Amino acid sequence: MKYKKRIHIAPVGFEVDRIVEPAVEYKADKVYLLVHDNNEEDKASPYIERVIEELEKNKIKSEKVLANWRDVESITKAARKLINDLKEDEIFINISSGSKIHAIALDRTIMTLPDQSNITEFYAESKAYEGFKPGKKQLSVGVKETKEIPKRKMVLPKENSLETLIIIYESYKEWKTTRGGDQHEWKGITKKRLAIKLVTKNILPGDPKNVGPRELSALEKNIIQKLRDQWKYIETEKTGQSWYVRLTDHGMSFVNEMTP
Predict the structure, then answer these.
(1) Is the pTM of this model over 0.85?
(2) Which residues contact 88 (CB under 8 A, 6 or more apart)?
(3) What is the average pLDDT across 107-121?
(4) pLDDT digits over 157-202, tens only?
(5) Residue 157 in 3-state DSSP?
(6) Which of 226, 94, 92 lies closest to 158, judged by CA?
(7) Exposure of 83 by Cβ count < 10 A (0-12 exposed, 13-18 middle, 19+ buried)?
(8) In this structure, are residues 68 and 37 in contact, taking their beta carbons and an 8 Å threshold?
């Protein structure tokens, strides 16, 4: 029988107690520390080492996970990958120990997960706020109370829609590899080629060797209209005799966050 570990995920800012004390209280087996991916500009480096030392004193393992603390998308992607890798364990996510960007990204991460049954999101309220002053060891001291945050689910495009976005994204990557241009220079993937790929993956019914008006109509009605008009993740444009489908900036960010 596999033992379920109690895993904490905590961003590291200028706090120590708000990471360590909840980990001790909840009897964490391991704490994954979200740290900035550029060590040279990371002002939280001294706090990272202190957190690791304090966790070691309490016989709790730790591991650093890199993400750009200025970028919600980077944090969301890193956290989603980590949670999916640890889906067999009990996961506790601390949104009180980092920046507002960390809190937003981690909350977004949880809301995008179809299964949240093994996840607890919490906020550790400090006993006293020290403020960021020279000589102070951390922004706040102690933990007054740990509050669990009710979980919510974000409404997301259906799985077939995500598969479609991934196909479009992969087409863009292929084009970028050969042409070297940026997203806005890319015309997109033709509707017919997209339909062939979707039929091949059994996302649309039909024969991939004989894709015609019926399959193109189903693609437009069942997938493209929603992704374009409702979600604003794609845009379509006719060039010559062909219709092209490409990702918008929002679509590109969504695919990036939702894929490994």
Answers:
(1) no
(2) 2, 4
(3) 92
(4) 888 899 999 999 999 999 999 887 788 889 999 999 999 999 999 9
(5) coil
(6) 226
(7) buried
(8) yes
